Amino acid sequence: MKLLTRIAQHAERKPEHIAYRTEDQVLTYGMLWDKSRRLASLLHAIQLERQTPIVVYGHMATDMPVAFLSCVQAGYPYIPVDTSIPMERVRLIVEKSGAGLVINTTDSKLDFDSVAVLHMLNLELEQEELIGDEYWVHLEEVFYTIYTSGSTGNPKGVQITAANLQSFTDWMTGDFPLDEGKVFLNQAPFSFDLSVMDFYPALQSGGTIHALEKDVSNKPKLLFENLSRSALQVWTSTPSFVQMCFPNPDFNDKMLPELEVFLFCGEVLPLAVAKELKARFPKARIFNTYGPTEATVAVTSIEITEELLAKEKALPVGYPKSDMRIFVVDELDNPLPEGEKGELILAGPSVSKGYLGEPLLTENAFGMINGMNAYRTGDAGIIQDGLVYCQGRMDFQIKLHGYRMELEEIEFHLNQSDFIKAAIIIPYAPNEEIEYLIAAVVPADHDFDKEYKLTAAIRKDLALRLPAYMIPRKFSYHTSIPMTINGKADRKKMKEEVFA
Length: 500
Ligand code: AMP
Known about the structure:
Radius of gyration: 23 Å
Bound molecules: adenosine monophosphate
Number of domains: 2
Distance between the termini: 58 Å
């Protein structure tokens, strides 16, 4: 595979060049390739069946990239699982994925009934006999699987093949101004596919990944000190993250004088954010990109120029990458003419082959169009003069501060709580963006004398099953959930009650 071959070449030609760094660790190309090759040989020796997934657990330590590359060199897809994911959900992912091994890159102890855990810390990698490139994941095999929120209460694993990833990485390094050897920001944890947007393009082009661990990005003082020292050239993040930097007036081209490119993906890029960035970084180029995890990070892009900012009320998400086709269809799947609003369908070589172990979910969302894998996004949009515009969702999937989630998944877990009879989630969105979630709850009988105690108990329950970013900020208590005439929860009426 070209991507892996390139990494091997960089390791040979410039072994001392930094491939990946965090606040206190560095990993050169030489170290990355050498360590990952040895670990790949060790994984090979375990003799799992080819293509058995391996869960890689951790945050952003240098062992994470090493573990990823070792899995794929031995022919196994990896499943990145961040430490922010609650243990009950981690167990679910390990079980549901049929993982053959968990690689733990943290210093906490992990135990699973059915699967062995390999602790990377203190692992002595002997001078094993190294395996050859014939074991590398083949183009049509799965390279990684990323779990996203699912409406049935369980996360779903999106399988990305080596061919999907190669198509994406070639597009990034070919169509964007990303020359060899740039310094890329990595803001997103590896369990979100936004991290793929900087990670593999940087490695393919011999660049350096500057990873922002959550202990740094959560604390403004540390964050800005870190950025000031970063010499970043390519910024990759959600719009929410860059917006979080705006309260600091020093966040500008003096803090990041080398910054050339902003790459955004994952949620709406508000016009105001793009304008603010242009003012603070007049020399940098800004790109909006769009895509779901199911189509390997992003499939459209557009440079946000002054002319575009002057012309558009809501920014377009861009033109499809050249090997992708994007269609707009009505409820009966009939293609719609230009300018008419419908559901966006993506077809082409970066579309996944489906959800791991979920044939029904896969059948509902994926199909074939003209011999290409196709994915039904659930995004509403239009195409005008070849430009794609996203106009919200057709379902209950939302983005909150850049995180993708299904309201039904949160509702499923709320309804599991002994303290709750029924619940629905109301997103609070005073303007274009969702600011936080409110749980409208019909409580079960309980002994709490105060509402806040009940809320604390429900939160504690939820924290066992859901990542912190999916837990509603506010709780509002009611005697019943209003129903529509056809017996569905009446979300509109509920919202009116919540805000009454
Ligand atoms: P994820 O799988 O986490 O990348 O989330 C994918 C979803 O995020 C898409 O289906 C869209 O709903 C939304 N999304 C991604 N990029 C953009 C964008 N540039 N503008 C608007 N929505 C976006």
